[in-house]
Amino acid sequence: MDSPDTEWDDVRLHVVTGKGGTGKTTVAAALALALAAGGRKVLLVEVEGRQGIAQIFDLPPLPYEERKIAVAPSGGDVYALAIDPEEAMLEYMEMFYGMRRAGRALTKMGIVDFATTVAPGFRDVLVTGKTTEAVRRRGRNGRRVYDAVVLDAPPTGRIARFLNVTQEVAGLAKVGPIKNHSELVNGVVKSRETMVHFVTLLEEMPVQETLDGVAELRSAGLPPGCVFINMVRESLLPQAALDMAVKGRFDVGELALGLKAAGLADTSDAAAMAEALAEEVVEHARRTELERAERESLADAGLPRLELPLLADGVDLAGLYELADTIRTHRGAA
């Protein structure tokens, strides 16, 4: 298995995307915990309004403010921010035009909905702008406020446009605050400080969407990072048995003898039980073979890959920390 390398040390914005149902938000949360381990401070951002971070960490819905939500392994803090486009627009208007009060009146009139209808990419500009501001922000001591920012981004199908929209807006606005703001955002997104990570399953559709997303990012000049292969199930049988099952050479009679010898079945029902188990073995072997093929397809993308286990008890806080530990281990973290 390939794993992320030391190039991550220079990355400050980790964008996490994936097809729906692949566990994108879970992986983003685990990555934030892993990056914060050892005394670092990480901000975990969500932009889709689903309150997925709150659900994963078993918290009430998050307000539009940065607040501490977890302590990472070996110390370190994870903060979270659920970006609200209207609040982001108020900040934007105050920052560039000194119009926060007027902005509140405009939001009551539905100006954000109006603006995003006229210019659909405007909402993405607001949320990416808020995220990259957190990446750039420094405290009074001149140091960065956050060691890293993890963005739980939109699904793979629209990630390239989501990240590239500031460049499009900058092209429309030739001068002024909007152009300057867009250029700042674009400067972070396309820099060595940013990586876009993909979350996938070992299934045909998520893998194909991942490969398409990687190609689209590269065409747009955006930086792909790591592929997280989520919910990986360990094979329960040796490879020789799997090969025999796939080829239709699995010995049901031998399995029946084994069941009787182990005291798991008597003579009368050993054959029937062996037949049922053999069907399960063949299905498992075929799935394993398909997963192997999907791994090979992902290898063609030429990106580091990190496999995360299927959590038998589901995704709870303990499972989240288990995934974070897996990420840290394969990054060579202490």
UniProtKB/TrEMBL annotation:
Residues 13-180 form the ArsA/GET3 Anion-transporting ATPase-like domain. Transmembrane segments: none annotated. Pfam families: ArsA_ATPase. This is ArsA-related P-loop ATPase. It comes from Nonomuraea spiralis.
